[in-house]
Every structure is written in C-alpha cells, then in structure tokens.
C-alpha cells in the first residue's frame, strides 16, 4: 500500500471532487461516516460517555459528522469545539450547523484552560482537533489540552492523525502530541506511523478507504510503500512440479568464531527453511562438531584456523554468499573478508560483524558487489553512516548511502525498512517477541536463501523481511512474546509460507 504525503493526499482529494463531481462536504460525510461505522461496530451501543474534541478545520468537521451520527444512534455524546482560531473551514461550519440541528444543543467551546472538561478513565475520547493540516506545534492552552486528554487515562481514538503529530517531520522533544490508542486514518497510512521516533503516538492503525480517485492513487509516485500480506504474496514465486534441488540455488554461509558458532547454525538452517536447494557453511575449525551435529543438512568447510576466519578459500561456486554472523573483526578476519569481496561478483548478503568490518574499514565498501543486501540494526547503521538528527535525516542519509554503493539496505526495527536507493518499503509483519538473540541471524539466512532461488536481491529482501515477521507472528500466537526464541522463527518458516497464500487464516 502506498504511503502518501499530506500534499499528495490533498491533491487526491481535489482530483476526486473534480472527477466525481461531488462537493467537499459530501466527501467529508463519506469519510467520517466510515469512522462512525467503525466506532458503532465496536461499541455496539454501549452506554459510555463519548467526548469528541473538534478543531475548527476539516479534521474538526469530520469530528462533527461522527458526533451527529453517534447522537442519531442514541450514544451519549459531548462535543467540544477547540477554538484555537476564528478561521473555521467551510465544511466545519456546515457540519457545526448540522450537529446543532440534530442534537438541539450547542457544542461547548474551549478557549482557555478553565474550559477543559473533566475526563474520566472510563470515557471514550475522539481526537478530531488536527489532521494532516497541522503546520506548527500546538502551544499554550492548546498544548495543555492535548496533555490533559493524554493524562486522563481514557481510551483515545484519533481521526486521521493524532493531533500535534506532523505528517512530515518529527515533533520536538517537549511537543504536545496526542497519544492515541487507535488511529483511523484516511486512504493511506502516513509515514510517521512507522518511524521509531513517532510510532508511539498513533497506537494501532487502521486505514479507511474513503474512495479517493483510483487513477490518481495508481499513478502517483509514493515515497514509501507499506508491505502487508497482499504485497508480499505478489512477490512469491510458486515452485515448478518438475524441479530438483539444483533449481533452487546454492547458498554459502560464511562466519562464526569461537563462542559464536550458534549464529551460524541459525543462519544456515534458515537458508534451507527459506527454500534454497543447497547450503554450504564455512566456519573456523572449532565449529565443526557443533554444526555437523545440529544441522546435518549443511555441507561444511572449515578454515585452517581453530577460532576465527583467516582465509576463506573454497572451490565452490555458490549463487550467493551470506557473510558476517558471529565472525568477529580481528585483523586476520578483515583480511579474509577483503579477499572474499575481491573475488565475488554476485550480490552478497552482509550482516552483523560483516557490517562492523565495513564501517571500520571504509575502503571495503567500494568492493561490495552491486545490489548486495546489508542488514544493519540501528547501532550498526550508525557505525556505517554516522549519527542523524532525526528519523527523516536518517532516511535521507540511507538513501544517499544506498545510491552511492548501489546496494540494498534493510534497517531492522519494530517496522523494518528496506531501502533500494529509489524506493523505501516498510514491513508490516512481526511483533515485539522477535526482539530476541539471533533473530537477525535468521533474517540474513532467509534473505540469502531467497536470493539463491533467483529472487532479485531487492525482492528477496522485501519478501524475506515479511516472511520473517510473519513467522514471528505465528510463533507469538503459540508461545507468547516472552518465550519466543529465534530458532522458533526459523522452524516456523514453513507455516509462514503457507499463511502467505492462505486468505482464511488471520495471520
Ligand atoms: N484530504 C482528504 O482527502 C480529506 C480530508 N479530510 C480531513 O481534513 C483534514 C485536513 O483538514 P485541514 O486541511 O482543514 O487541516 P486540519 O483540520 O488538520 O487543521 C486545521 C487548521 O489548523 C491550523 N493549524 C495548524 N497547526 C496549528 C496549530 N499548531 N495551532 C493552531 N492552528 C493550527 C491550520 O491553519 C489548519 O488549516 C484531514 O486530516 C482529514 O481529517 C476528510 O474530511 C476527508 C477527505
Ligand atoms: K486528529
């Protein structure tokens, strides 16, 4: 699903009005009716106090439509107009009158702190103060109102966006922003719902298709795309009945050092679980027994050194090399890595200590085969590209970095981001249970395993990240977040492939 900017959404809005020949009031009614239906479906007529806070722009107009419909269906509704300016939008005014007619009441006006209503923890608040039109931080009593709602302990549903959150930048540290439990957002998700610094504000996000112009949405170039099941499924290549293991490629997994052989077991297993035909493993001698015993499906080659990689020589011709897990970064290993890079033309996957070696020996970056996939977590990324001011600057820096070295970068996180230089993809599977040792080793194995099956490196990265998260979701259903360990993610990958093609299953 495309993630559009506020400007693009406003343009989509205008194109829709023109092409459908409808008024903006009609479009507002359509959008806000969906919000009402969602609330009505969940509350089922519950006898609770619903407090609706409306700004004086179109987000506030949406709030007034929701208020009118809830009132009509017998809910206990109190409307507060957050009167931060006298410039009320036309559609706000139309719906202000309609609400007054429907309810025979005048909404309360909030103009200063003394006007704030009491909010009990059992109340249901609707935040319709600001949407994508926010253009400066909320200040004075307005900021206090947002904090008053946050501190009330009441459930808060944000319409389109949590108020105080900019669609295109990170709010300052002390900025007042609504911390919603749930956000019903119009037409497309907003980028800030997925960035580490701002994702806490939106709570759970649901996208409402308000029927904006299809042709516009199809043509418009989005800065980023959200990858859910539908998108991931389109990338999957079904297997030919008449095939053999040679058709699914050969992955060579290189890494490990004394005490870190387990990471290699996890990666290598995940290579085969992702469907690669063959998996060879290159490790220091100390890992021989461990790997042969725990993973007999792999072919094994050892370094001359007992404890670390010093000379990665094989006569194999793998389709992809997955490098770095548990490798350490001694000078001998750096030398061996350099020689490997010099010999390799096909795109590689580089993870963990492979990334650390790249950041400590910058000249190695120039040796990376084109379209290689790098899979840093935020700390590894910082070592590679330096510090950033905020998430937006981080994205700019990554874009330049990926363009410069013609690589693909997977930034791991609650929502992992995949950068191709031209486009950004945001993964929507996974859960907090996956923040566990070895989860990254499993991911590198999955992506490399897909690359060896002739998935383009970018496609392997997107699909691999999605499947990794989906498998984690399946594990979490069975084991809960705390008990989930990374071997489970690898072991359940088969169920993730099945769930990818299955419409009935929730996950
Ligand atoms: N674009 C679309 O496709 C649709 C938009 N709709 C609604 O319209 C919203 C956008 O409406 P608006 O453009 O009127 O903007 P908002 O309602 O988000 O904001 C209202 C006005 O507040 C002022 N303002 C911004 N920051 C302020 C601050 N910190 N303190 C005081 N005043 C501030 C601005 O001048 C802005 O125009 C969307 O978020 C959505 O809720 C929907 O009605 C349906 C369709
Ligand atoms: K809002």
TrEMBL record:
PANTHER family: ATP-DEPENDENT (S)-NAD(P)H-HYDRATE DEHYDRATASE, ATP-DEPENDENT (S)-NAD(P)H-HYDRATE DEHYDRATASE FAMILY MEMBER. Its cofactor is Mg(2+); K(+). GO terms for molecular function: ADP-dependent NAD(P)H-hydrate dehydratase activity; ATP binding; kinase activity; metal ion binding; NAD(P)HX epimerase activity. K(+) binds at residues 59, 127, 163. Residues 228-500 form the YjeF C-terminal domain. Its EC number is 4.2.1.136, 5.1.99.6. It catalyses: (6S)-NADHX + ADP = AMP + phosphate + NADH + H(+); (6R)-NADPHX = (6S)-NADPHX; (6R)-NADHX = (6S)-NADHX; (6S)-NADPHX + ADP = AMP + phosphate + NADPH + H(+). It holds the Pfam family YjeF_N. Binds 1 potassium ion per subunit. AMP binds at residues 412-416, 440. The gene is nnrE. InterPro entries: Carbohydrate_kinase_pred_CS, CARKD, Nnr, Ribokinase-like, YjeF_N_dom, YjeF_N_dom_sf. Homotetramer. (6S)-NADPHX binds at residues 58-62, 131-137, 160, 326, 377, 441. Keywords: ATP-binding, Isomerase, Kinase, Lyase, Metal-binding, Multifunctional enzyme, NAD, NADP, Nucleotide-binding, Potassium, Transferase. Belongs to the NnrE/AIBP family. In the C-terminal section; belongs to the NnrD/CARKD family. The lineage of its organism: Bacteria, Pseudomonadati, Bacteroidota, Flavobacteriia, Flavobacteriales. Residues 9-218 form the YjeF N-terminal domain. Gene3D superfamilies: 3.40.1190.20, YjeF N-terminal domain. One of its GO terms (biological process) is metabolite repair. Catalyzes the epimerization of the S- and R-forms of NAD(P)HX, a damaged form of NAD(P)H that is a result of enzymatic or heat-dependent hydration. This is a prerequisite for the S-specific NAD(P)H-hydrate dehydratase to allow the repair of both epimers of NAD(P)HX. Bifunctional enzyme that catalyzes the epimerization of the S- and R-forms of NAD(P)HX and the dehydration of the S-form of NAD(P)HX at the expense of ADP, which is converted to AMP. This allows the repair of both epimers of NAD(P)HX, a damaged form of NAD(P)H that is a result of enzymatic or heat-dependent hydration. This is Bifunctional NAD(P)H-hydrate repair enzyme.
């Amino acid at each position: 699903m495309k993630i559009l900017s506020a400007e693009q959404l406003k343009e989509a809005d205008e194109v829709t009005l023109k092409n459908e020949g409808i008024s903006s009031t009609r479009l507002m009614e359509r959008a806000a009716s969906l919000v009402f239906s969602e609330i009505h479906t969940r509350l089922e007529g519950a006898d609770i106090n619903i407090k609706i806070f409306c700004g004086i722009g179109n987000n506030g107009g949406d709030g007034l439509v929701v208020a009118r419909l809830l009132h009509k269906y017998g809910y206990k509704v109190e409307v507060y107009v957050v009167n931060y300016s006298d410039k009320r939008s036309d559609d706000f005014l139309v719906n202000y009158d309609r609400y007054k007619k429907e309810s025979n009441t005048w909404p309360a006006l909030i103009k200063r702190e003394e006007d704030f209503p009491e909010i009990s923890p059992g109340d249901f608040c609707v935040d319709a103060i600001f949407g994508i039109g926010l253009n400066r931080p909320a200040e004075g009593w307005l900021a206090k109102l947002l904090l008053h709602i946050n501190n009330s302990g009441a459930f808060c549903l944000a319409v389109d966006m949590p108020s105080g959150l900019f669609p295109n930048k990170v709010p300052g540290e002390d900025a007042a922003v609504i911390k919603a439990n749930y956000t019903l957002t119009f037409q497309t998700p907003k980028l800030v719902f997925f960035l580490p610094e701002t994702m806490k504000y939106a709570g759970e996000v649901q996208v409402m298709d308000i029927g904006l112009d299809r042709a516009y949405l199809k043509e418009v170039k989005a800065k980023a795309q959200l990858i859910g099941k539908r998108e991931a499924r389109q990338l999957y290549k079904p297997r030919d009945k008449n095939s053999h293991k040679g058709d699914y490629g050969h992955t060579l997994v290189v890494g490990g050092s004394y005490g870190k052989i387990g990471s290699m077991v996890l990666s290598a297993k995940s290579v085969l679980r992702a469907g690669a035909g063959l998996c060879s493993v290159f490790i220091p001698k100390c890992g021989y027994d461990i790997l042969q015993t725990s993973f007999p499906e792999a072919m094994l080659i050892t370094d001359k050194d007992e404890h670390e990689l010093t000379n990665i020589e094989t006569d194999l011709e793998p389709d992809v090399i997955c490098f770095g897990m548990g490798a350490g970064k001694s000078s001998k290993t750096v030398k061996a890595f350099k020689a490997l890079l010099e010999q390799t033309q096909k795109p590689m996957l580089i993870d963990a200590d492979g990334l650390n070696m790249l950041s400590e020996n910058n000249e190695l970056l120039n040796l990376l085969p084109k379209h290689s996939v790098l899979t840093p977590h935020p700390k590894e990324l910082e070592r590679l590209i330096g510090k950033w001011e905020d998430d937006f600057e981080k994205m700019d820096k990554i874009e330049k970095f990926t363009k410069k070295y013609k690589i693909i970068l997977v930034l791991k996180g609650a929502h992992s981001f995949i950068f191709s230089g031209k486009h950004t993809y945001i993964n929507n599977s996974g859960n907090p249970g996956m923040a566990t040792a070895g989860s990254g080793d499993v991911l590198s194995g999955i992506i490399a395993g897909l690359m060896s099956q002739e998935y383009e490196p970018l496609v392997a990265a997107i699909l691999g990240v999605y499947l990794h998260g989906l498998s984690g979701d399946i594990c979490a259903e069975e084991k809960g977040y705390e008990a989930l360990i990374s071997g489970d993610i690898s072991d359940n990958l088969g169920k993730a492939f099945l769930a990818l093609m299955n419409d009935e299953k929730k996950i």
